[in-house]
Design goal:
Blueprint: H1 2-25, H2 31-41, H3 45-63
Helix pairs in contact: 2-3
Length: 71
């Protein structure tokens, strides 16, 4: 239904916002930090790990070959 779709998109937007906040604090969090974030956001740990990896790659790709290191 439209309501269900609306609720899911709101939830995923909130999840994305929280993931972005966490990424800005630390683009390379420890596994236990990602586990805690996954639990908090009601996501699987693998989903959070993949999101961080993909987000780092997207930034690196957009920045070009001379992209700054995140560390």
């Amino acid at each position: 239904s439209a309501l269900l779709l609306f609720l899911q998109s709101c939830s995923s937007e909130e999840q994305k916002d929280q993931l972005m906040k966490a990424f800005k604090q630390d683009p390379y969090p420890a596994v236990n930090q990602m586990e805690q974030l996954a639990f908090k956001l009601n996501l699987q740990t693998r989903t959070v790990i993949n999101w961080f990896h993909n987000h780092r790659m997207r930034i690196r790709y957009k920045s070009g070959p001379d992209a700054a290191n995140f560390n």
